[in-house]
What does this fold into?
Amino acid sequence: MFGSVVVGIGTAGFVRIRDILAPLPSSAAEKLSVKGFISRILEEQQGVKQITVEDALSRDDIKVAFVCTENAAHEENIRMFLEAGKHVCVEYPMAMTHKTAVELWDLAQEKGVVLHEEHIELLTADFKQLKKDIAGKRLEEGFLHFTGGPLKPGFGFPAFSGIARLTWLVDLFGELSVTAASMEEDQQNKYMKMTAQLITKEQKPLTWIEEWAPGLSRAKDINFRFDSCTITQLPPATREPVGIFMQDLVLFSQKLLGQVPRDQLHAERRRILHCLELADRIQQLSLQGSAQDT
Ligand code: NAD
It folds into this structure.
């Protein structure tokens, strides 16, 4: 069994405890148990007790840490648990720079433990259907506009907090390059709009917008023009019986048990680092643009 600690009890942390307590029957996730959680506020959660960071790091029966804090605290927590020889599952994004993510991955390798970044957005039924629907089609031009809001403190620059959308684009269309990026911000009104211009290996343009403001509903507007058709809506897909966080938990547990093929692990690491590198570049170009405007 892999005894675990959950760090940060917000939406994601709550779900992690819930899923470890009731894992998918006959799946690798049954090998996890929850020994405690770390929170600055709560004492007890779903019958599980709070433990100290020192306990979590030093106890031999704790082998795994789930890092579910705001993005800004991921690096510190991951580093601390990896240093202590614990496996880590972190909610996306792993870190706020590409360089940090490379360092963390190298550290995991050095310690001989698993470092897993959750990507539930790739596990939703509508995304899986979209991927099937576009298979074999040649993209001419694409557009993805995400709205939500407003962005909570501690979640970082929109290219990182919105890494799920960037991961979609990379998973659908392959590795990308950034050709331009800009950012509009009105701090007083909690308004933010990031626009990134990307290009595929076949030199086809993709526009990615993240727009956050009070009152904006959480939505994705897509327009993917292919040689044979245009897709403007996510395909209808029946919700799968196994929830997306549970699917991710099973994948992480399979990694702990050494059941995931090496080439799959390699491809995943490459995709994650590529997305963080793009996010870095988008941030750089956006900030350069903002500096020139002032
Ligand atoms: P949240 O704000 O609901 O929860 C974060 C929690 O972490 C808060 O309760 C905060 O008090 C706690 N926290 C922060 N620093 C801490 C520390 N040092 N020690 C202990 N507790 C600490 O946020 P969330 O929506 O649960 O998101 C958490 C992470 O999960 C983020 O990285 C996010 O990108 C990722 N994620 C969330 C979802 C989702 O559906 N909510 C989906 C995918 C990924």
About this structure: The radius of gyration is 20 Å. Residues 30 and 154 are 32 Å apart (CA to CA). The chain has a mean pLDDT of 96.
